[in-house]
Design a protein that fits this description.
The protein is α/β, with parallel strands linked by helices and 441 residues long. It folds into two domains: 4-58 and 343-439, Aspartate Aminotransferase, domain 1 (Alpha-Beta Complex), CATH 3.90.1150.10; 67-340, Aspartate Aminotransferase, domain 2, CATH 3.40.640.10. It has 16 helices and 15 strands. It has helices at residues 21-26, 52-55, 64-76, 88-100, 114-131, 152-157, 161-164, 183-186, 202-210, 236-247, 268-272, 299-304, 325-340, 346-359, 390-402, 423-439; strands at 31-35, 38-41, 46-49, 105-111, 139-143, 174-177, 215-220, 250-254, 278-281, 293-298, 367-373, 376-381, 404-405, 407-409, 412-415. The strands form three sheets. It has a seven-stranded mixed β-sheet with strand order 4-10-9-8-7-5-6, with helices on both faces. The protein has a four-stranded mixed β-sheet with strand order 1-2-3-13. Strands 11-12-15-14 form a four-stranded antiparallel β-sheet. β14 and β15 (412-415) form a beta hairpin. α3 (64-76) packs antiparallel against α13 (325-340) and α4 packs parallel to α13. The chain binds 3-[O-phosphonopyridoxyl]--amino-benzoic acid (PXG). 3-[O-phosphonopyridoxyl]--amino-benzoic acid (PXG) binds at residues 54-55, 113-115, 118, 147-149, 221, 225-226, 254, 256-257, 282, 407, 409, 414.
């Protein structure tokens, strides 16, 4: 049998994630290099990055500080075990991270992805109540259309049907809020929509149905990204917070996408002025360069675990690569780069320009809604009757051929460029997209 190593260009062995494998392998799209705002393809074309890789390369590509930190770290300390051992950069990164986090969040638990951050937060929520002698609080509440990664806890509280339906019965004891998408009342809103705060009140009914004493936590994305950019109606997050407070329920914000400056403040909690009990983050934590996630936790939650005998492990949870030295080095250099260039608030400055550019697409063929906040944009297309997703996918392919990388989910185009984007590049991204929308069937 021929060994695959003798056929380096064979595409067969790699089972690609979240990809139509057979379709892709017939016409692959290969990226071979990246710098700043642009990728280079294997056929030598330059492609403007309209999605920060996958919502993660917030400082742009190949930033020297980050690259050098990783190179140095690999030579100096490649790996250190994280259980009953440590290395200095883990503490340094946790300190820097809680420095930029919303004030009530004082501790960081490191993971290797957003999915793991979500599992970790859900487990901390359950264990916290139990530690406090409130062990009947076992129920978790998510939201329809929510995306919280792909592990079992995350898909259970998540609300994306395709991510759930093939995988059995999932976690028990989970319920869901309704999603907030309401195009009949909110289409073409600029920023957070006016209508729909009352959808948060359904949390009150869910809590009443199960009895408050059984509810551990509510998890939502402050701005839902993966499902196609759904913004919280004005006042919605405040109402969720008030209901959670009333019933002793923890509120978790999944900020894997909104964290690290995406909407113009370091975290969405800052932007909306609503403080959760935990934040999950990943992606922009290391500029996407090395896998890493984290859960940021309030002091009361952390301290509730610090009660038993001191020789006993307080939380039976962790990963071989928690606070991996390479990831910590990348994280520290990333936070420095954000600080050097004021990137965590840059989206706020660019937001009005971005909003105008995006909304200039109104009136183009098939465009039925446009949504924006900070440097996030969603453009919803009318699906082709009987063939949902096909129209947006063909926009995506044409866009790539025309030199811009966008992302589509269902029939929604999502954009989230690196926070270093310049106005001329916004014009290029939206201008190219406009041309394509005029030509697509
Ligand atoms: N929570 C949220 C809110 C996310 O957006 C995760 C958790 C999981 O993170 P990891 O690192 O395990 O992938 C995410 C990930 C898209 C898209 O098309 C978004 C994500 C992943 C894949 C695709 O928008 N976000």
């Amino acid at each position: 049998m021929e060994r695959s190593t003798s056929r380096p260009n064979d595409l067969d062995a790699f089972w690609m994630p979240f990809t139509a494998n057979r379709q892709f392998k017939q016409a692959p799209r290969m990226l071979v290099a990246a710098e700043g705002m642009r990728y280079r393809t294997d056929d030598g074309r330059s492609v403007l990055d309209g999605v920060a890789g996958l919502w993660c390369v917030n400082a742009g590509h190949a930033r020297p500080k980050i690259t050098e930190a990783i190179q140095r770290q690999a030579a100096e300390l490649d790996y250190a075990p994280p259980f009953q051992m440590a290395h200095p950069k883990a503490f340094e990164l946790a300190t820097r991270l809680v420095d930029i986090a919303p004030e009530p969040l004082t501790h960081a638990f490191f993971t290797n992805s957003g999915s793991e951050a979500v599992e970790t937060a859900l487990k901390i929520a359950l264990a916290y109540h139990r530690t406090k002698g409130d062990g009947a609080r076992t129920r978790l509440i998510g939201r329809e259309r929510g995306y919280h990664g792909v592990n079992f806890g995350g898909i259970s509280v998540g609300g994306i049907v395709a991510n759930r339906k093939m995988f059995g019965t999932l976690l028990s004891g989970v319920d869901h809020l309704p999603h907030t998408h309401d195009p009949a009342r909110n289409a073409f809103s600029r920023g957070a929509p006016e209508h729909g705060a009352e959808k948060a009140d359904l949390l009150e009914s869910i809590v009443a149905l199960h009895d408050p004493s059984t509810i551990a936590a509510v998890i939502v994305e402050p701005v839902a990204g993966s499902t196609g950019v759904l913004l919280p109606p004005k006042g919605y997050l405040e109402r969720l917070r008030a209901i959670c407070d009333r019933h002793g329920v923890l509120l978790i914000f999944d900020e894997v996408i909104t964290g690290f400056g995406r909407i113009g403040a370091p975290f969405a909690a800052d932007y909306f002025g609503v403080m959760p009990d935990m934040i999950t983050c990943a992606k922009g934590l290391t500029n996407g360069v090395i896998p890493m996630g984290a859960v940021l936790v309030r002091r009361e939650i952390h301290d509730a675990f610090m009660n038993g005998p001191e020789h006993v492990i307080e939380l039976f949870h962790g990963y071989t690569y928690s606070a991996n030295p390479m990831a910590c080095a990348a994280g520290l250099a990333t936070l420095e780069t954000y600080a050097d260039e004021s990137l965590l608030t840059r989206a706020a400055e660019l937001a009005p320009y971005w909003e105008d550019a995006l909304h200039s697409l109104k009136g183009l063929p098939h465009v039925i809604d446009i949504r924006n906040l900070g440097l996030i944009g969603g453009v919803e297309l009318e699906p082709i009757a009987g063939s949902p997703t096909k129209r947006a996918y063909s926009v995506f392919v044409k866009a790539f051929e025309a030199g811009i990388l966008i992302r589509t989910t269902g029939d929604i185009i999502a954009m989230s460029p690196p926070l270093i984007i310049e106005k001329a590049e916004i014009d290029e991204l939206i201008g190219t997209l406009a041309k394509i929308l005029k030509t697509v069937d």
